[in-house]
Design goal:
- By secondary structure, the protein is of the alpha/beta class.
- The longest helix is centred in the middle third of the chain and has 17 residues, at about 290-305.
- It has 31 helices and eleven strands.
- Among the domains are: about 5-175, Spore Coat Polysaccharide Biosynthesis Protein SpsA, Chain A (Alpha-Beta Complex); about 175-255, Serine Threonine Protein Phosphatase 5, Tetratricopeptide repeat; about 275-365, Tetratricopeptide repeat domain (Serine Threonine Protein Phosphatase 5, Tetratricopeptide repeat), CATH 1.25.40.10; about 540-645, Serine Threonine Protein Phosphatase 5, Tetratricopeptide repeat.
Length: about 650
Amino acid sequence: MKLSACMIAKNEEKNIARCIESYKGVVDEIIVVDTGSTDKTVEIAENLGAKVYHYQWNDHFADAKNYALDRAKGNWIIFLDADEYFVEGTAQNIIPLIRRLPAQYKAIACRMQNIDYANGRLLDEITHVRIFRRDKNIRYKNSIHECLFYKVKDKTIEAYLVDEKELLIHHKGYSLSDQGRKSRRNLALLLKQLNDAPEDPTIYQYISDCYFGLEDWEQCVKYAKMSIDSGAEFVGYNVKPYQNIIDSMLRLKCNTNDIFKEVHAGINKFPYHPSFHFYLANMLYDLKKYDEAYKEYEKTLQLQKEYSDIEFNSITPNLFYVYYGMGLVASHRNDQEGALNHFVDSLKLEKMREPDCLRRLLWIIKIFPDEDIILLLNSLYNKDNKQDLDFIVTTLTGVSLPKVLAYYSALRIKKYGSDDLTVVYMLLANKQYDKTFNIAQKCLLEDPNNRTFEAIAVVSALMCECEEYLDWVEEFTSESTRGFVKSMVEHETFTFDQVYKVEFLNLVLYLYLFGNQGLLDRGIQLARYFYDNSIYVELGNLFFKQECYAEALKLYQHYIDLEGASREELFGQIYAAKGICLYKLQQYENSVASLIEAYYLGYKNNEVYEFLRWSADKLPEISSLKKSRLEKILESKDLKDNIKVLH
C-alpha cells in the first residue's frame, strides 16, 4: 500500500513546512501544485522532497485539486491545505487505520480544530474528510469551498469517523482579525455561482458565512434562511445556518421572543448539540432567570461531554464562559464554594479572556490569608510570564487586596522593569504615600487630564496629611477635585453640580481601594453637597458592584430616608437593590420584606422573583402576612407572562 500526500499552494512559505513535516514520515510521495507563488513556497517544498507542479490559476479550487489528484500514484490520498497539519505525530496512525478499515469505506473523516493564527486560540471544531482512496470517480467540485463527491450517480463516499485521540488536524488559516478580507474575496466568487444554487444549495450557506464575516447581519440571516428552506443536507455544516441566524439576530438586538424561537428551532433540530443550550443559557441569564440559566449551562456541559457528532461545534473554546456563567449564578445564590469552583474551572481554561471572572474570584477569596490567595493565583497563572503578571496586577487594582497587589507589582517590576502606573500601585499598596505622591505628581504634570493619576495623587496626599501635598493638589488638579479636597480637609461648604458626579465616584472608589475607613467616610460625606440626592444611589451602586453590600445598603437606605414617601419609579429599583444586599448579607427575612416592597412599587424585573424565592427557601419560618404577600407575587400574572417567553 502506498500513500500520496497532495496539496495546492500559493505563497505559503510560513505554513508549508509544518504541514509537510507532519506527515512526511508516513507517505511515499508528496505532490505540491503551486498556483503562482512569489515567495519561497516552491523552494521549501522541493527541499522537503515534494514534486512541485505549476498550475495556471483559474479561480477554481476544485480544478487545481483535481490536477493534483491526476498526478498521484498512491493507493490512498492525504489532501491537506498548506495551513493544516496533523497534531503531535498522529499521522503515524494513518497506515494502521487504513489497514483495519472495513472494505466499504472509501474515506476517513477526522476532527479538525480551527485555531486563530493571530493569538493561538481555538475558534471551533469541525469534521472533514482529508484522507481517501485514489479512485478515478472520487473528485473535487466547486470553484470555492470545494468538496469531494463520487462521480457515479446515486453513489456516495462512505467515510469512517476516527477518534480525535488517534487522528487530529489543526487549521491555522483564519483569524477573527482577518475575516473581513477573506469574506470579501470569497463572496465575490460565490456570487458568481448563485445561478447554480438550485442544483447546489450549499452556496446559500457559504454566502451567509461571508456576510457574517463582513458583519452584514441582515444579509447573513437572509441567506442562512434560504439555506434552511432549501432542505439541502450539508454534512458537518447543517447546524451552521441556525447559528448564523441566532448570532446575527443577537447583534441586531431583535425581539427576544423571536430569538428564542430560533434557539428552540435549533434545539428541536439538533437535540444533542450543545451550542443551542448555550445560547439559551446566556439569554436566560440576561433575563435574570438565574436558576433556569444554570440548568441550561449544566445541560451544555453534559451534551458537550457526550458529543460525538460531526457537526460544526464552537462550544469547546467557549467552555470557559459556561463555567463563568455557572459561577455568576452560584455567587448570586450565596453559594460561595460553588462560585469559587466554577470561576477556577473557567480560569483554568481561559485565564485572561474574561477579566470579570478573576475579579469575582478575588472578591470571594479576599477573606483568605494573603499567602493562600497568592498560592491560588500562582496555580492559575505563570508568575514568570509578563502577560500573566500584567493581567493579575491590572485586575488587582480594582479589588481591595493591597498586600497581594504589592506582591505582584513588585514581582512584575523586578522581572520586567517598571512603568509609572505599576510603580504607584505597588507603592500605594505598600502604604508608601510620599513616594506615591511624588510619582503621581510628575505624571499628572505631564498629562493633566489623566484622571487615574489625579485620583492617586489625591489619595496619597490625603493619606500623608502633608500640607504641602494638599496645597499642590488644590492648585494643579481639576476644579471638582479641588472642591472635594477642600471640603474634606478644610471642612468648607461647597455645592456640587451633577457634572462633578463622575470625578466624585472615581475619587470614592480610590479611597475605598487604597485609603482607610476614616478617609472613605469623609469622602462619602461629600455626597451631601450635591444638588441631587440620587448621588447616594450612584454611590450605593458603586459599592454594590464591588460586592460591598453593607456599605451599599446604608447608602440606599439613606436615600430612602431623605426622599421620604416618594413613589417614584426609582424607588422600586432601590428597594430591589436593597433586598439583594440583604440577601447577600444573609438577612433573608428583611430581604423578603424589601423585595416585596420593590414589587409593589412597580419594579417587576425577574430578579425580584429569583431573590424572593431564594430568600423564602432560606427561611424556616415566615410571618403569615409576608407569606401571603410572597405567594401572591410568586404566582403573579406579571411574572408568569415574563416567564412564558422562555418555553
